User: Fold this.
Amino acid sequence: MLIRQASLADIPQMSAFLQRLQALGKRTRPADPDFVRDTYITSADKLSCALAEKDGIVLGFQVLIYAKPGNTYDVTPGWGIIGTHVNPDVARQGVGKALFAATRVAAQTYELEKLDATIGEENAEGLGYYAAMGFETYRRKPGVICKCFELTTGAA
Ligand SMILES: CC(C)(COP(=O)(O)OP(=O)(O)OC[C@H]1O[C@@H](n2cnc3c(N)ncnc32)[C@H](O)[C@@H]1OP(=O)(O)O)[C@@H](O)C(=O)NCCC(=O)NCCS
Assistant:
């Protein structure tokens, strides 16, 4: 498995498996190629979009966004906002764990102190994944649970 930054050429595969996650009821946000490009590849607020690939197949990606004042998730400005999407064909095979190792390095490079992950309250796999990565619940909003990772004290 190769971990690298996502590029424009990855958009078709990224969009395709996000649409499969939608069909499985595991995603509510858009998944079309334009959304993928604007949100995960070319967004000015994007700090990193780590992508896992094997033999030309995109296995998953994890985006790290800089929380600006007024951001969609109402995250404290200056934090990072993380989102993780793994191809359902390779779930629970360590892709998410490998992606977070790369994202964590990126967050340290940008000297972020805290990361937010906002997860649907019924998304057991998302909640389990972020808990396993060392994120801790810090607030709840209707329908979602927000978890925080502290880069200064988080587990290696
Ligand atoms: C959540 C998600 C990112 C996990 O990615 P993954 O590649 O399957 O995760 P990994 O295989 O690296 O798992 C790492 C650890 O996370 C936890 N975990 C992963 N999937 C889990 C599940 N279904 N239930 C409980 N814990 C889980 C486990 O502790 C796991 O370690 P283990 O397998 O040694 O027990 C992936 O399932 C996914 O993309 N889901 C759909 C989108 C989503 O919910 N994104 C996150 C919320 S926005």
